[in-house]
Amino acid sequence: MASTACFVIVSKNDIPIYEAEVGSAPKKEDLAYHHQFILHAALDVVQDLAWTTNAMFLRSVDRFNDLVVSVYVTAGHTRFMLLHDSRSEDGIKSFFQEVHELYIKIFLNPLYLPGSRIASSHFDTKVRALARKYL
Amino acid sequence: MEPGLSIESGSAIRVAVLPVGGPIPPQCLRDYAALVAAHARVDLASLRPYYSEHQKSPFSHQPWDTGCLRLKFVLGGCVPSPWEDFQSSRKVLAVVGICHLPSSPDLARVAADFLDASRTYPSALASRCFAFCPTDAQLLEQRKDGIIMFPPSDQKSLELHMLTMIQDLAASLLMEFEKWVLRAESTGTILKTPLDSQSSLGSEEVHTLGVPSILTSVIKAKKRRLGRAQKIIGDYCLLAGSPADANAHYTTAIDLARLTGDVFWHAGALEGSVCALVVDRMMGQSDPVLEDEVKYRYYTIIQLYRRATLQDNAQRVSPVSFELEAALKLARYLCRREVAKEVSDLLMGAADGAKALIDASDRLILYIEIARLFGSLGYKRKAAFFSRQVAQLYLQQDNAYAAMSAMQVLTMTTNAYHVQSRKTSKPDHASLKELGASNSNADKAHPQSVVSLFESQWSTLQMVVLREILMSSIRAADPLTSWSAAARLLRSFYPLITPAGQSGLASSLSNSADRLPWGTRCADPCLPFIRLHSLPFHPSQRDIVKRNPHKKEWWIGAGPSGPFIYTPFTKGGTSGTSKQEINWIVGEPVQVMIELANPCSFDLVVESIYLSVHSGNFDAFPVTVNLPPNTSKLVLLSGIPTKVGQVSIPGCIVHSFGVITEHLFKEVDSLLLGAAQGLVLSDPFRCCGSSKFKSVNFPSISIVPPLPLLVANVVGGDGSILLYEGEIRDVLITLTNAGTVPVEEANIALSGKNQDSVISIAHSTWKSALPIKPGGEVTFKVTLRAWHLSLADLEADGSRSPANPRRIAREGINPFLNIHYAGPSAAKGNGEVSLPPGRRLAVPLNICVVQGMCLVRARLLSMEIPARFSEAHLRPVSGKDNTSDESNMLHNDISLLKIDPYKGSWGLRLLELELFNPTDVVFDVDVSVHLDGTSVPEDNTADVACHKTRIDRDYSARVLIPLEHFKLPVLDASFFVKENGSDELLGSQAATIAEKNAKAELNASISNLISKIKVRWHSGRNSSGELNIKDAIQAALQASILDILLPDPLTFSFRLAKDAKPVNDSNHSTDENVGPSAGENVLRCKDPISAHKMTHMEVQIRNNTKEIIQMNLSISCKDVAGENCFEENSATVLWAGVLNDIQLEVPPLQEVVHPFSVYFLVPGDYSLQSSSVIIDATDVLRARAKAESPDEPILCRGSPFHIHVVGTE
């Protein structure tokens, strides 16, 4: 079954610093930005929700039509946002946790200015691999 | 679905406001509608005067003191809803006509129009027609048709009038409601919704069913009907402003509906009851108990509606919109930050319901409502998301109005996506500016703050939104918005747009501009990117000099004194603060250098660009710039300050793509800052190949009152003054006061290099011209003399071609005139005198020295050829040429100068100068030798003029300079020190000082000699100068200087004894002391000697040395054939006296005379010559004679003496 999923890392300044279409559905240009619109809109909900819980994984916070937004908030208020059609929550959670580790590695890089775009191709490959594994 | 619903909207009376009659101007319609709509709430208490109770009111609990009627005015009316029986608030219960009388003069037609219009609202219980701006005639007309006139008056009385009319309308509505309710209570009504269309209550059902069931169903139907009637009566109670009554009716209705399973009406009644509850408690602020109650009931309502929807799923019309409306109402009621989660859940649930909505406009309304609610909740991004959904729905409709709505909705979303137009984001912009400023101040501020500058870079989304705005605005035919959107898109996202896309945007920009009026302004800048590059100083700006009131000569030390325009040492102390202060002067043009960049792939034509000045005291001049793809350009913008004060230049006004926009420097600066941090897509300047980013702060600029402004130009062109080496020329310099203030004082001084090339400045000329009035001018003379080109200059000249026009006067080698000047001091109000600053004008004298005639070589001629000199040439010359020369024949005394082949001519040496003329003009050269350092006699100068040597271009010529009578009187040993230095001849210590003195004397005499030689040249009409050949002459003379300067050890001279009568009385010849003075013409022999006559002659020998010379003198006489006549066998001359081997001793610096007599037998020309062999010659003499071996005899010869012997006839 073709699935759509769009993964975005949003910095604490609300700037997307990493974007990836990780779904297996055939890519369509207008859909890609449609996904981004949904994710962007979900930030409002995340902003409120993040302070109501201790958990980093906020589960699904928003939806539009049949697309669901799941969010994982790191301690530095960087948000991992995944737009997906309904899927197992466990896989998403594992995916987020693994990506968090990768993200921390990026973050530890002294040449990386926190809040700027993640341009590492290694990171990109790893994230896509994780997406194939868990999603 | 309906927009703008809330829980309370059940209590609002819907009034259609319809424009009737002729067309109403939009502005008037808006005003009138606002006038009507101002009275949305009419207090019950104020209705009293218009209300008359005809029967007992059914609204027994009406709160007359506190209650009110709510009116909801719908401009333009609305389509009757099929659900209006279900909710009375959906009915149009009153109609108000609005008429603009000036455009519809016929009142009867207006009345008919209004009647027609109100007929489309059968549910209307009351109607009024308001007519505005009637004419007097119309006022006087009989009001038989119920048109209510609003006579023109001020706004306040108009409002009062309107209030009265609305209260009247409300009162009549209230009375109608009472009537309606009374009738409904007594007779009952049939109430249907679209849900009931096919089923349930029809009579067919009754027939088909069995009796018991018929019975039950009839009872049920009756109860159901009753319940519905109760619900509607409740609605009317609510509309009449009596929630308590309404509540009672609703309670009944709810019970009945629940009993009969009329789910839909149950929900409706429940909704009404909540509305009654809320309206009743309206006064109290947020009441948690009430809120819980409302929440609880509304969730029930939503459930009920959902059930109704499920029940009637198969049906054509679905009540799903009521469920959504209920959700929206609750959300609106709850809409607060604290319950944001609940609200957003409700709204998201409602959004999910959108799919179930069949009607596109319903979906549109749903999304609009959701967006509004999210917006008021503070969820800007959510609101923007749903707004965009709304816009897409609008765009699916294919008409201009929908496109316009889409465009407006999208424009609202721009804030959330951070792509807002600048005109709507002033405060935001200010904060950005502030941030930018603080950043540039703190240079490397915290990186985080830099990051926050570029918040929300969702570039994909931003581009999509802008593109949609562009699309919708094109469809909506709003050229300005489409221009602005395209401009923002292009400016912010050019790196993400393909070249084809960029060109497409450019063409859409120009297409939009075509439809805009000329000179439209837009808040959003497009291309190019503009940054401040520098502020090049106008020379006049730099030269403002503060005047010291305590110093008369304020210019001293004020300006830079060196050749450098900028001196690093001036103002060293004050330059600690990097902020410069710049003064501009009223009325004097200034320039600002900016850099433009076009990073796109099309040709950008900036029709005009000029500085944008908000302070209003500056006139900027526009320029046109053409930027090819991917280029940047430096452009100088200029302008004229017009008023005194501070000036701030935040950016530039650019007219490109047909629209005028303002580009701020600050924005680009922060963009570049972001680019430097890698946060922004691209640096437009770097991708155009421009240099590195350097932030230039605009300095604080103040405009000062006008000062005088002197402009200097050199008469005959401001180019460099072309001078040949050594040329002396007068240059006229004109000073013009181009300012508006007179020049009262001035001072001219020289500075720079080669100051000695300025011989004189005519100070008196300009001083007498002071003060120079505005527009006045003074011309004064500066005499220049071209300096000598050094060798390096000549080499640098390269081609050495005189025709080479690229002779650029090298910078820095020119002198310049430093002119300090100032205007009058202005008297301040308090009696003090304020000194406006003075100014400095540096007038460079661009002297370009070109190579003139050049000296190829200078040499002393060996005099092996006979030289001819006229008397005019050389007065003191001894011998004359007698060959036939027309000019020389004039002089009678021409004699042959005999040349000694070994030694040269006697007493006269010729210096030959070989001159070459490499230039392209003709030179005339004349040579003069100023004797004795005194002034040259008048006639001599006249002679000099006749004997110019002309040297054509590219030719060389030789000029002869006779050197005569420079001989020193004494031949001294010390002169040979140089030559004999190695011999240690006179190397004793004691002699050294004397030697030095003597040497100094020699050198002085050499330079004296050289300075006497002047080579003047003329070229053309007005160029003349002097050839500087001192060094060359010195070099030429160096070898033979001694020959010229030093006398021979012995001088011989002949004379006729009759001329020297006084000599005869001396008895011994050695003491003959009639030495001729140096200047006297000893040898002159004008009178010819007659033959056959004894001639007494004597030879005078002078010792020029300081030692006694012993010698062996012999005298010879030669005829023209060169035969010696003093020989034994000579037949031509007889003689008496000793002529050979005369032993003589001449004391130092003395003369001896040796007499003899000759008797010429044959007339003719003879020459006498004496020579002597010096016995025991000293080394000095040997040195003088340049003897090679010590035993060589030293021979001394006198010059030949010419005698012309005539016959006796």
UniProtKB/TrEMBL annotation, chain A:
<dbReference type="InterPro" id="IPR011012">
    <property type="entry name" value="Longin-like_dom_sf"/>
</dbReference>
<dbReference type="GO" id="GO:0006888">
    <property type="term" value="P:endoplasmic reticulum to Golgi vesicle-mediated transport"/>
</dbReference>
<protein>
    <recommendedName>
        <fullName>Trafficking protein particle complex subunit 2</fullName>
    </recommendedName>
</protein>
<dbReference type="Pfam" id="PF04628">
    <property type="entry name" value="Sedlin_N"/>
</dbReference>
<dbReference type="GO" id="GO:0005737">
    <property type="term" value="C:cytoplasm"/>
</dbReference>
<dbReference type="InterPro" id="IPR006722">
    <property type="entry name" value="Sedlin"/>
</dbReference>
TrEMBL record, chain B:
<dbReference type="InterPro" id="IPR013935">
    <property type="entry name" value="Trs120_TRAPPC9"/>
</dbReference>
<dbReference type="GO" id="GO:0005802">
    <property type="term" value="C:trans-Golgi network"/>
</dbReference>
<feature type="domain" description="Trs120/TRAPPC9 first Ig-like">
    <location>
        <begin position="559"/>
        <end position="658"/>
    </location>
</feature>
<dbReference type="Pfam" id="PF26283">
    <property type="entry name" value="Ig_TRAPPC9-Trs120_4th"/>
</dbReference>
<dbReference type="Pfam" id="PF08626">
    <property type="entry name" value="TRAPPC9-Trs120"/>
</dbReference>
<dbReference type="Pfam" id="PF26254">
    <property type="entry name" value="Ig_TRAPPC9-Trs120_1st"/>
</dbReference>
<feature type="domain" description="Trs120/TRAPPC9 third Ig-like">
    <location>
        <begin position="871"/>
        <end position="1045"/>
    </location>
</feature>
<dbReference type="InterPro" id="IPR058564">
    <property type="entry name" value="TPR_TRAPPC9_Trs120"/>
</dbReference>
<dbReference type="InterPro" id="IPR058567">
    <property type="entry name" value="Ig_TRAPPC9_Trs120_3rd"/>
</dbReference>
<protein>
    <recommendedName>
        <fullName>Trafficking protein particle complex subunit 9</fullName>
    </recommendedName>
</protein>
<dbReference type="InterPro" id="IPR058563">
    <property type="entry name" value="Trs120_TRAPPC9_N"/>
</dbReference>
<dbReference type="InterPro" id="IPR058565">
    <property type="entry name" value="Ig_TRAPPC9_Trs120_1st"/>
</dbReference>
<dbReference type="Pfam" id="PF26251">
    <property type="entry name" value="TPR_TRAPPC9-Trs120"/>
</dbReference>
<feature type="domain" description="Trs120/TRAPPC9 fourth Ig-like">
    <location>
        <begin position="1068"/>
        <end position="1205"/>
    </location>
</feature>
<dbReference type="Pfam" id="PF26280">
    <property type="entry name" value="Ig_TRAPPC9-Trs120_2nd"/>
</dbReference>
<dbReference type="Pfam" id="PF26282">
    <property type="entry name" value="Ig_TRAPPC9-Trs120_3rd"/>
</dbReference>
<dbReference type="InterPro" id="IPR058568">
    <property type="entry name" value="Ig_TRAPPC9_Trs120_4th"/>
</dbReference>
<feature type="region of interest" description="Disordered">
    <location>
        <begin position="420"/>
        <end position="444"/>
    </location>
</feature>
<feature type="domain" description="Trs120/TRAPPC9 N-terminal">
    <location>
        <begin position="213"/>
        <end position="280"/>
    </location>
</feature>
<keyword id="KW-0333">Golgi apparatus</keyword>
<feature type="domain" description="Trs120/TRAPPC9 TPR region">
    <location>
        <begin position="356"/>
        <end position="511"/>
    </location>
</feature>
<feature type="domain" description="Trs120/TRAPPC9 N-terminal">
    <location>
        <begin position="9"/>
        <end position="195"/>
    </location>
</feature>
